[in-house]
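We emphasize that the prediction below concerns an isolated chain of 179 residues; any contacts that depend on oligomerization or on bound cofactors are therefore not represented. The input was used exactly as deposited, without trimming of termini.
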Amino acid sequence: MFFYNIIRYFFSNIKSMFIVFMNIFSKRETLLYPEKKVNIPPRYRGRIILTRDSNGEERCVSCGLCAVVCPVGCISLQKKEGKNGRWYPKFFRINFSRCIFCGLCEESCPTTAIQMTRDFEMSEYKRTDLVYEKKDLLISGPGKNHKYNFYEKSGKINIFKKNNKNIKRKIVDTKKILP
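Result of the prediction step, given as a token string:
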């Protein structure tokens, strides 16, 4: 039994050395990251952004669903009502040092205001620099859904039209868009 184990270990080591020798000339799996960019899958969930609708107004209505559904509690916001009755976040804050990029906030957002980009290069030296405020998150464009406007789809735009006569928008019959 003793000699059997010695022979078995010897051939096991020879086999391991052969495998290592065969991989010496194979292509590298490790990329030199900063010099060579990583190929990211199309559905990658990276940095969170806030978008605007097609009229250039904030899409977020401060419903708070994103903060409620977040499993780590990294989103905080406070609602404020504008002069025309439209809700918007007074402040919207995401702590990216706690965010796990699960995407539940994007899925729960009824207005598609929260969207996840493919940006993952967010390293900072200070942890406090990873707390992004509304001004850091809000972009000037509509993001993925260009034509979607929550207030038009929900029929809420009619109420705004009564309050502000200068707004001329298409009135949507909400009964026709029901499934």
